[in-house]
Amino acid sequence: GHERADDVPEVFAGEAFVAPSNLGHREPLSTLASEFKFNASFVSKVRELEQRGYDGWRRVRGDGNCLYRAVGFGLLELIATSPGPRRELWAKSLRRRLEALQPPEDLDQLSALEQLLARIERLGAKGSWDDGGISPSGTLCCMPMSKGAAAVESMHRSFCDPHSLLDLALIRCLRRLAAERLLSLATDDEATGCGISYETICTCQGYQGVDDFCQRVVLPDGTEAESLVMSALPVALGIKLRIAFLDRTEASEVPFCDFGQGAEGGGADGGEPCPEVHVQLRPGHYDLLYFRAGADGDAQ
């Protein structure tokens, strides 16, 4: 997403810079409303989200990778906090999709990918993100919290650093998954769901075709996701993606748009529901959204 005011590095003593975190901590929706407290329309939309069952959000760094980062971390959170059998199934599905990608030639990128795959495998099998419950600082994780919550905390630590190699590895995997789907179904009129092929849409948008679109928009780090990515990425991941459109206009209701629907095998087998990630889109930027425990997952 576009850079926001809170993404600008802070200056201390005129010389030291602190890069923004890739991911914030989960916050109540009240903090989102308070950021725009002088815009009654925006505040009313946040209240509508609360009425629909949402109760939290997570800031995602606006560096052009925000959609991929939000979807990737949101999916890992769902895996970590799901019951054992479903957690194993969803983790195995994600790992299988990432393993099928052509491995990067760069050795550092390859090492980061292998570490990411190993952690996803551990998450599915044991419900933990770090090996043996050891925090990055080397101290035992002893806070009284559920296993899923502890895994999410560990994931947050490993992804929030602006120089995190795991963060970049996950983002690059999701970019490549989206590109592979777009390229493999470039001339399929049914793949987009609107009767027009990806190739035709890309050409109409001024690109030379799907390959040109992928090379210029989908694959480069730090390049914002455009509409075709929303069509391709959730299906490539086997998830559902719901986007809540928040802006400061006077529109009375929050519009939602659903993508993916767990097509082509979904996120699970045997009739299991697939993961459903929720994000909010403010002009040019995506952040994660969360439901109240026990709230209706369809947010109708």
Characterization of the model:
The chain has 10 helices and 8 strands. The chain has 300 residues and is α+β, with helices and mostly antiparallel strands. The strands form 2 sheets. A 6-stranded mixed beta sheet has the order 3-4-8-7-5-6. Strand 1 (10-12) and strand 2 form a beta hairpin.
From the structure above, extract its key features:
two-stranded antiparallel ribbon; disordered N terminus; six-stranded mixed sheet; alpha+beta; 44% helix; 300 residues; single chain; 10 helices
- The strand line-up of the biggest sheet is 3-4-8-7-5-6
**Amount of beta strand:** 5-15%
- How confident overall, as mean pLDDT? 86
Structural class: alpha+beta
Treating each run of at least 4 consecutive H or I residues as one helix, how many helices? Answer: 10
Helix percentage range: 40-55%
Largest sheet: 6 strands, mixed
Rg measurement, Å? 19 Å
Query: Uncertain segments of ≥5 residues (pLDDT<50)?
Result: 1-14, 133-141, 262-268
Overall form:
globular
Topology diagram in text:
Layout: E1 10-12, E2 16-18, E3 23-28, H1 29-35, H2 40-51, E4 54-60, H3 66-80, H4 84-99, H5 107-126, H6 147-160, H7 165-184, H8 198-204, H9 210-218, H10 227-237, E5 240-245, E6 256-259, E7 276-282, E8 285-291
Parallel strand pairs: 5-7
Antiparallel strand pairs: 1-2, 3-4, 4-8, 5-6, 7-8
